[in-house]
What does this fold into?
Amino acid sequence: MQPLENPHLYFWLLAQSQPGPFRAVSQYLHRGGTGRDLTVLIAAISSLLALWLLLTWLERLRIARARWILTPKALFAELCQSQQLSRRERQLLGDAAASLPAEELCMVFVDPKYLRRFTRTHSRDGVAFQQLGKKLFGEACSAESV
It folds into this structure.
């Protein structure tokens, strides 16, 4: 069977051959249905299309988020949130972790030597790093040396 050259003719033939909704819509439109009914039909189809687009977008967002959750950056953000760190503290920790490989990004939460090392190299933020070390590791962090 060869495809028809005119797609409009194909849909017209399909509508004529199928009993039920296609034929009923075709007959209604040929009889000259009111503009209000056509507006309702267009609104219903547009609503279904918008719903489908929304669901597709939400699914893509869910998939992207699921992929992001399994990264070291996501774990770092989750640890910052669980420690209730301020924006400035998150920034300081991010600066300290920036020199680390991606796999060791969260080591700044586990081992205070990373913070102490960064405190020595960035004397301008030294006090802030010491306060952050106390918040994360207690008094022992500020007293120890590497």
Notes: Residues 35-69 form the longest helix (35 residues).
